[in-house]
Amino acid sequence: MLATTRVSNLKIKNSSRSSTRPKRTIHTSIFKTPHIENEPVKEYREGSKETKELLSVVKQLRDQKLDIPIIIGGKEIRTGDIGHARIPHEHKHVLATYHRAGKKEMQMAINSALEARQKWERTDFYTRASIILRIADLISGPYRNVINASTILGQSKNFFQSEIDSICETVDFARFNVKYLEWIMQNQQPESIKGVWNRLSFRALEGFVLAVSPFNFTAIASNLCLAPVLCGNTVVWKNSESSMLSNYYLMKVYEEAGLPPGIINFVPGTHEPMMETAIPHKELAGIHFTGSTSAFENLWKNVGQNINHYRSFPRLVGETGGKDFVAVHPSADERSLAVALIRGAFEFAGQKCSAASRAYVPKGMWGDLETMLLEMMGHIHMGNPEKVSTFVNAVINRNAYDKCASYIDHVKENPKEFEIVYGGNYDDSVGYFIQPTIVISKSPHSKLMREEIFGPILTIHLYDENAQTWESLLDTVNEHQYALTGSIFSHDIQATNVAIDKLRHACGNLYLNDKPTGAMVNQQPFGGSRKSGTNDKAGSYLNLLRWMSPQTMKTTLIPPTEVLYPYMK
What we know:
- With 569 residues, this protein is an alpha/beta fold.
- The protein has two domains: 2-6 and 26-320, 3-Layer(aba) Sandwich (Aldehyde Dehydrogenase, Chain A, domain 1), CATH 3.40.605.10; 324-512, Aldehyde Dehydrogenase, Chain A, domain 2.
- It is 37% helix and 20% strand.
- It contains 16 helices and 23 strands.
- The chain has helices at 49-63, 103-120, 125-140, 144-155, 159-187, 218-230, 244-256, 272-278, 293-305, 334-346, 363-377, 398-413, 447-450, 470-478, 493-502, 541-545; strands at residues 66-68, 70-72, 75-77, 82-87, 90-99, 196-204, 208-212, 235-238, 264-266, 284-290, 315-319, 324-328, 356-362, 418-422, 426-427, 433-434, 437-441, 457-463, 482-483, 485-489, 509-512, 529-530, 548-556.
- The strands form seven sheets. The protein has a seven-stranded mixed beta sheet with strand order 14-17-18-13-12-20-21, sandwiched between helices. It has a five-stranded parallel beta sheet with strand order 9-8-7-10-11, sandwiched between helices. A three-stranded mixed beta sheet has the order 1-5-4.
- The longest helix is centred in the first third of the chain and has 29 residues, at 159-187.
- It is globular and about 85 Å long.
């Protein structure tokens, strides 16, 4: 229960029901789940009631210091192997201590998941769905400010970015997944001829699912667990140590909603216990992963090495790295392009796998575009995301800071190859702050045009539209190893169509005249291919198909009683 934490004393009011939110229609038929729409986004304007309420919770979470346990089978476990959850924009401030799981606790979590699975997979869909929908309503309602504030503090997201992620997308994943699964069960049934009834049942996978979540999206952490759970699976959740506070509160909300013990087992810690205990376990049924390409490759490699040991072939579902592009045709509108580049590259300090990271801009456009970019960047505030006016926050931790700083140093050390147009500074005296940086790369194949940085650094290559054809530029864009998201900016319909065809496999999410980030559940299902993942499209029914093992069932209504067929007589 959330009442077991000090947050229960905050007396948080349910302020999530805005006057603009559509009323939910509850259908009385057991064959219909509630009507579902995307959760409305609160704006958190300066001085508004909702902003004051959220700031109050931010302050109270900041002033307390939690001791976060491992949670296995509903029981709290403390190992004494302590980690510290810090505020990225004020890294000397410890928000919470947490206990790391070792091999013993990982095995306990697996045992707990396997035991709970026996009953959970036999629990009917509507019972499971009701718990998932209650989780969504708790997050959008009475615990909205808690989840939001913990994301703002623990992951250094500004109010708007946190609202979109930790509340709206988290809620949307939960609610729409219920609708998707209901649709699958009702509409993906085979034909039956006279005298025969054919049907599909959708079983859970046989074993446990390992969910490995990243720091950057609270919503992703939630969906990696809840999507398999809705389908009847049980989960061992290895979360990121850099998003401990919000992930812990998610776990407490799951318990508050009535999720039985052992369905999700919360095992924070290093990767070693997972790699040594969970990956080689014979009952590993699947891995639901979001993180770096190298980490997923390592998981896949280790699964391959243990393939003869498993009861079944594990499902591997991964969303990994990105080096997301913006391809600009000379017909593009400069102002909308400038807005897309800044928002796409610098929101949440570029710590999105879909962030705009490389752009290809005509030389003839650069003069006006540069002026617009510099003017707009003058209005961007970097600093404490607890202030409503903050646009760019700190990066998540020391490793991220050092990595981003190394790329900026590389640019400064190679002035013949790069030019810094804006930014280029960094400071870790208070928080892990990397100044939003815009770099011109002379080569479309430079280090900064090829490698994922995961920080607020946008690299632009200026191509000569008079010497290079649009088609050849698109070939350059398409050469990349990543294929997650991308944008085409063009008002020439023929050029746009050429780009759509040329970049057919260059990304899983393609945006026309918009930034390459900001996918919404049920609107732009998300995922990429190549080295960007398995493209199983979270935010659609396609992802849920991966967490079920269908069984075909045929009932012959009047079985034959003779061996010989009529024509044989």
